[in-house]
Amino acid sequence: MPLYEHVLIARNDVTQQQVEAIADLVAAQVEGDGGAVRKREYWGLRSLAYRVKKNRKGHYMLLGLEAPPASIVEMERQLNLNEDILRFMTIRVDEIDDAPSAILARKGDDRERGFRGPKPAGRFDSGRGGKRGYDDREEFRARDEGPRGGRDLNDE
């Protein structure tokens, strides 16, 4: 039987439990036709790249399906009729990976941020090196030294 990855986006007005219920309906319909759901991931409420049916956010769900093509066509027809679904996409794949998807893997990396280094010393200091006085900054030195770079011909 062919393998598919199916991603659906539900409106942000619905709850996570309602999104899970929609996924359960999809799973029941696929399993009723002799297929199986091999993978199921809830990606959470995420921002959309642009407004879709007046929504700026949506609940994302990924399903890894093993089903006959006729079952996929019927599932997509049912999702078109559901008002809570903003978009969906079904792609045929060679295999369904058991590891977490890239979306969930990246989510885990964001939460494990550690120490990012020392903070800058003050408002005007860069944090590199020791404390410098206010007038020691490069822009004030250039202005105070004059047009010839601070050297006078009489000094030699």
Automatic annotation (TrEMBL):
Alphabetical list of InterPro entries matching this protein: Ribosomal_bS6, Ribosomal_bS6_sf, Ribosomal_S6_plastid/chlpt, Transl_elong_EF1B/ribsomal_bS6
Record keywords: Ribonucleoprotein, Ribosomal protein, RNA-binding, rRNA-binding
Record keyword RNA-binding present: yes
GO cellular component, one term: cytosolic small ribosomal subunit
One GO biological process term: translation
Presence of the UniProt keyword Transferase in the record: no
Molecular-function GO terms, alphabetical: small ribosomal subunit rRNA binding; structural constituent of ribosome
Region (Disordered): 107-156
Biased composition (Basic and acidic residues): 125-156
Biological role stated in the UniProt entry: Binds together with bS18 to 16S ribosomal RNA.
Sequence similarity: Belongs to the bacterial ribosomal protein bS6 family.
Protein name: Small ribosomal subunit protein bS6
Source lineage: Bacteria, Pseudomonadati, Pseudomonadota, Alphaproteobacteria, Acetobacterales
UniProt gene name: rpsF
